[in-house]
Specification:
0% strand
Length: 388
């Protein structure tokens, strides 16, 4: 493992602040955006949140080839410039197709940034540090969600376009990368083979499938909560934004505590995310304001411990080459779950529950049960390497 200073670590973590903003940051403004594009189909409006995920997946599948040609610093700079231009550029888009095209470009940018934000930690740090660092990375990801969701919700009250200005936060990470990030050639040890190696999927399938299910379940929240809360309660848009920000705060705190939890309760952490999701969405079905608060806290905990758990186990298994092997696969699975969530949940809501208002939450409960069975069937107990 190479020596790394705190400035480089901070630079890597700054990229983790940005990745969640690809979709979820705009979720509090989705109700207002839907009103502006009232003539557009409902699913098309939801794609404003989830479409970046599709292009993140495509980019991730070619990340190994990209890393063979360019160093990590070059990839990060290109990704961050595109992130700012495509993200904030939506401010000037008044046509939904132009808006969706820019959201697709935003997905390409995150597809370049995401594997670096976790893979570089595995590249620089030994396995015994992985739980702490992946928890910290996930916490920074959630902190980005807190800041971006809050700003987007407040800006959307002024004008729906203003919500997209949150992507200017990418300039901070760009400055750090320009000053501190080394230019590592991550793909140099993987010179042979195709851009995407199916055998890697077979090797890491428990984590990859787990991440897909986790995100499919979680993304029921940002794509439905603002709309369903407005229909079922007297909550104002500001109150809805506050609840969504509160969920990210809970996830942030869970990420900070993840290293400690993983060392204290390693046998039980694999069950934490599916059980917390199940209980959280059950609270949403009940529907009172108090249960919405409890449910949001539980869903925040599920996301806050579930993501770093999967990243930690996969990075230990993948070793120093994780940035070009398992991390792109996990990133692709993460965003595939986001993309397919509305495409799966809406039809199942109509098929199984007649399209009731809370039907998306009931579908999330069923998928949480599938997730619970998946971790039971594929996860053997794995202890962490002792810290030096």
């Amino acid at each position: 493992m190479k020596q790394i200073n705190k400035r480089v670590t901070a630079t890597i973590l700054s990229m983790s602040l940005l990745t969640v903003m690809a979709g979820a940051a705009i979720a509090p403004a989705l109700g207002i955006i839907r009103e502006h594009f009232a003539a557009a189909p409902h699913l098309l409006v939801q794609l404003i949140v989830s479409l970046p995920a599709l292009f993140i997946i495509i980019t991730n599948l070619f990340f190994l080839s990209i890393s063979r040609r360019w160093g990590s610093r070059t990839i990060a700079i290109v990704g961050l410039v595109l992130y700012v231009v495509a993200g904030a550029g939506c401010y000037w888009a008044d046509n939904i197709w132009v808006l969706l095209a820019l959201r697709a470009l935003l997905g390409v940018s995150v597809g370049l940034i995401m594997p670096l934000s976790t893979g570089l930690l595995a590249f620089y740090y030994p396995p015994e540090e992985q739980a702490r660092l992946m928890g910290l990375s996930a916490a920074m990801n959630q902190m980005g969600g807190v800041v971006a969701t809050l700003l987007a919700g407040l800006l959307a009250q002024l004008e729906w376009r203003s919500a997209f200005l949150v992507y200017l936060l990418g300039l901070l990470a760009l400055l750090l990368v320009l000053h501190y990030l080394p230019d590592e050639h991550l793909g140099s040890s993987n010179k042979r083979g195709r851009p995407f190696e199916p055998r890697q999927l077979l090797k890491f399938h428990p984590s990859v499938v787990g991440m897909l299910l986790l995100m499919l379940i979680f993304f029921v929240f940002p794509t439905n909560f603002a709309i369903i809360a407005a229909q079922r309660s007297s909550l104002t848009p500001t109150a809805v934004t506050a609840i969504m920000v509160g969920l990210d705060v809970v996830a942030f705190l869970a990420g900070l505590m993840f290293g400690w939890l993983m060392n204290k309760l390693p046998r039980y952490m694999k069950y934490a995310a599916p059980l917390l999701f199940l209980l959280g969405y059950a609270c949403y079905v009940e529907g009172s304001v108090s249960m919405l608060l409890v449910g949001s806290a539980l869903i925040g905990l599920a996301n806050g411990v579930g993501v770093p758990y999967l990243l930690t186990i996969a990075s230990i298994k993948g070793g120093q080459n994780s940035a070009t092997t398992v991390m792109p696969l996990l990133s692709a699975a993460l965003y595939l779950g986001q993309f397919v969530s509305p495409l799966v949940v809406l039809p199942l809501s109509r098929l199984l529950f007649g399209g009731a208002v809370v039907a998306p939450y009931e579908v999330a409960i069923l998928v949480s049960l599938v997730f619970l069975v998946q971790v039971w069937a594929t996860r053997r107990f794995q202890s962490l390497p002792p810290r030096a």
